[in-house]
């Protein structure tokens, strides 16, 4: 949806072990990953983000925070000098802890002020 509004490259972050198709099984896996502070492997990691000045980290909210695979992604790169925008979809939880979580896991973005 974002790429329909602004010109940008899109990279879909996919888990090496695909999330289940059923809602209940996905919720159970998510709860387990959050409890264990897991870093699920990414099936299709980007080799680098050097070419980008701005990064939009978009995801749903699962159990009041972004999926743990988003933390895997955020911790995998150096965001020094980049502008990072967290974007989320949610039904009832608002942003939850997403802004704080990305603020802690993204190394070196231009400003974390807006996240707090």
Structural account:
The model has no long low-confidence stretch (mean pLDDT 88). A two-stranded parallel sheet has the order 1-2. The protein is 28% helix and 12% strand. The chain is α+β, with helices and mostly antiparallel strands and 116 residues long. Strand 1, helix 3 (68-75) and strand 2 (83-89) form a beta-alpha-beta unit. It has four helices and two strands; from the N terminus they run ααβαβα.
Distance between the termini: 25 Å
Main sheet overview: 2 strands, parallel
- The counted number of beta strands is 2
Q: How large is the count of helical segments?
A: 4
Order of secondary-structure elements:
HHEHEH
Helix content: 25-40%
The Cα radius of gyration reads 14 Å
Kindly estimate the percentage of residues that lie in beta strands according to DSSP: 5-15%
Strand order of the largest sheet: 1-2
| Contiguous uncertain segments of 5+ residues | none
What would you call the shape?
globular
Structural class: alpha+beta
- Averaged pLDDT: 88
Task: Characterize this entry briefly.
The protein is α+β, with helices and mostly antiparallel strands and 116 residues long. It contains four helices and two strands; from the N terminus they run ααβαβα.
List keywords for this structure.
single chain; 116 residues; alpha+beta; two-stranded parallel ribbon; 12% strand
Could you outline the blueprint of secondary structure elements for this entry?
Layout: H1 2-5, H2 23-35, E1 54-60, H3 68-75, E2 83-89, H4 98-105
Parallel strand pairs: 1-2
């Amino acid at each position: 949806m974002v790429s329909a509004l602004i010109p940008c490259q899109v990279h879909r972050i996919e888990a090496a072990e695909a999330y289940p198709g059923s809602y209940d099984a996905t919720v159970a896996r998510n709860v387990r990953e959050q409890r264990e502070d897991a870093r699920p492997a990414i099936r299709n990691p980007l080799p680098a983000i050097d070419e980008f000045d701005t990064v939009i980290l978009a995801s749903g909210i699962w159990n009041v925070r972004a999926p743990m695979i988003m933390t895997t992604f955020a911790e995998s790169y150096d965001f020094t000098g980049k502008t990072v925008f967290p974007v989320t979809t949610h039904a009832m939880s608002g942003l939850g802890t997403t802004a704080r979580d990305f603020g802690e896991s993204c190394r070196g973005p231009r400003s974390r002020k807006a996240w707090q």
